[in-house]
Amino acid sequence: MLLKEIRQEVVEANAALPESGLVKWSSGNASARDPQSGLIAIKPSGFRCDKLKPEDLVITDLDGNIVDGSLKPSVDTQSHLYIYNHRDDVHGIVHTHSPFATSFAVRGESLPIYTTTGAAYFGGTIPISDFAVIGEKEIGKEVVAKIGNNLAILMRNHGIFTIGETVSKALVTAVYLEEEAECAHYANLRGKVAPLSAETVKASREWFLASYGQK
Description:
Blueprint: H1 4-19, E1 29-33, E2 40-42, E3 58-60, E4 66-68, H2 77-86, E5 92-96, H3 99-107, H4 116-122, H5 138-146, E6 152-155, E7 159-164, H6 167-189, H7 198-211
Antiparallel strand pairs: 1-2, 1-5, 2-3, 3-4, 5-7, 6-7
Helix pairs in contact: 2-5, 3-6, 4-6, 4-7
């Protein structure tokens, strides 16, 4: 099977989306790019995230030509491809409609950092995009133009895109983004709360990069 290991990683990432409360049924998607061949494995359109099998995934090249698979790829494929074509460092993309983070996107608000966990993972405010129509490259263009050095972006009136060196890392970012948005939402319900200072966020991010996890 072509891209066997990457297919498995993408299947596991898609299955984790509803399991983590980031999507419902068939909404959202995850993809990965093979560093060697440059080929992309992505969820087929309309398939429930938790019912996917490795053989269901669609394999395309960077121009969107289907290399392997008989199913129609995700409607977000062109946006994923635009990101991969313009960010050589990105090999995994996750798109969710996670409710707390998406509520900021619906309001057209960026998401400041309120927790030390958020500071460590993101290192700065999560940006908000302009509105972009689903189905072509427009969403991908907004991601590339507005995400900057961050790993996540709120898509206006749509949802979330996260990027990473692997699809597994992009998934982790999506999970922690929703946690940050949920904390921000509930804290501000009881009165306006000031986000962490830029200095605190920067220091937390530097500590995280230098100290967290196994080397």
